[in-house]
């Protein structure tokens, strides 16, 4: 099997071992004569797959017992709506207030959706420096009357990450971990709700994992669709309707793979090494640059620019020819971006650095 190095931001690289296992099982799962995709989601076999995936995720993140794990659909973008619908509190809609931190394009989308249902206070923003840093704790202007506080720990497009978990007192802290979940250990107990679209560190697209503290369930705002009610989802073990069974199964294989790698401590050490090497190389020459404040550099998404943007097209064509795929930056910002999620090996990062050095020599 020939596998290129894939630096796509999402849908992103999956571990080759997981794909091989899926291939082995695709037509005849465990000798049952049918594939996982063709089974009832309510069958004993499928339910065992679903439950194991949840348990493995709980083990990896050490999720406390008073948190529900939901396997939902609609991507992280649907959570931008479900969060306000489930978490706004107040006697009437006029009382709905939430605090949001704005660190880039995904924060902006989350804010825009929440504003459809209530008042959003942007309690800190780094728009002034073109989203090249995260605000510090002392810059967060928390509102006394907010129902919850939302932030984006890792902005996928800008490659900006928080280097701390905000302290928001007794308010539920809500975090969009789409592009950094499972990249390192996390103290789930600090959060009211964590959500993450699957297609980076979890599995293929079609799933969104929500980890929510139980006491936050059961208080939706008027008009919330049944399918958007976390309590309905939790009470039905994420099977109120037909879940995306194959994505859930593949996520389970990824969780098993992560456990085999030694869990999140072990994968975090590899991730940090990969990121240090790549940033170290970018900083070591004048041909490449990354604008993000050092303390806020994402270990998952590494945007970089070339000294001469006129070379961008050549860089992309040559890197692709060298088997290094999907290095174009997000369409909204241009430049380059290497997403180096869990399934992107250290070898892939070494190959990228080798190519970048060679390209700079030839074109610098
Ligand atoms: N939040 C973040 C941080 C993301 O990176 C993305 C997707 N790239 C989204 C939200 C949207 O996810 P989805 O496409 O699953 O709706």
TrEMBL record:
Q: List residues, modification N6-(pyridoxal phosphate)lysine.
A: 200
Q: Which residues bind pyridoxal 5'-phosphate?
A: 76-77, 106, 156, 176, 199, 241-242
According to the record, cofactor stoichiometry and binding are noted as: Binds 1 pyridoxal phosphate per subunit.
Query: Which positions fall inside the Aminotransferase class V domain?
Result: 5-352
| CDD domains from the UniProt entry | PSAT_like
Gene Ontology MF: a single term: O-phospho-L-serine:2-oxoglutarate aminotransferase activity
Q: What residues does L-glutamate bind to?
A: 42
* Catalytic activity annotation: O-phospho-L-serine + 2-oxoglutarate = 3-phosphooxypyruvate + L-glutamate; 4-(phosphooxy)-L-threonine + 2-oxoglutarate = (R)-3-hydroxy-2-oxo-4-phosphooxybutanoate + L-glutamate
Q: Does the keyword Transit peptide apply?
A: no
Do you know which Pfam families this protein is assigned to?
Answer: Aminotran_5 (PF00266)
Q: In which pathway does it act?
A: Amino-acid biosynthesis; L-serine biosynthesis; L-serine from 3-phospho-D-glycerate: step 2/3; Cofactor biosynthesis; pyridoxine 5'-phosphate biosynthesis; pyridoxine 5'-phosphate from D-erythrose 4-phosphate: step 3/5
- InterPro entries with a match to the protein in the record: Aminotrans_V_dom, Pser_aminoTfrase, PyrdxlP-dep_Trfase, PyrdxlP-dep_Trfase_major, PyrdxlP-dep_Trfase_small
Domain of life according to the entry: Bacteria
The record's keywords, sorted A to Z, are:
Amino-acid biosynthesis, Aminotransferase, Cytoplasm, Pyridoxal phosphate, Pyridoxine biosynthesis, Serine biosynthesis, Transferase
Broad class of where this protein is predominantly found: cytoplasm
EC numbers for this chain: 2.6.1.52
The entry's localization annotation reads: Cytoplasm
* Cofactor(s) the protein requires to work: pyridoxal 5'-phosphate
Entry's family note: Belongs to the class-V pyridoxal-phosphate-dependent aminotransferase family. SerC subfamily.
Protein's job? Catalyzes the reversible conversion of 3-phosphohydroxypyruvate to phosphoserine and of 3-hydroxy-2-oxo-4-phosphonooxybutanoate to phosphohydroxythreonine.
Report quaternary structure and partners: Homodimer.
What is the protein name for this chain? Answer: Phosphoserine aminotransferase
Give the originating organism: Thalassolituus hydrocarboniclasticus
Upper classification of the source organism reads: Bacteria, Pseudomonadati, Pseudomonadota, Gammaproteobacteria, Oceanospirillales
**Gene responsible for this protein:** serC
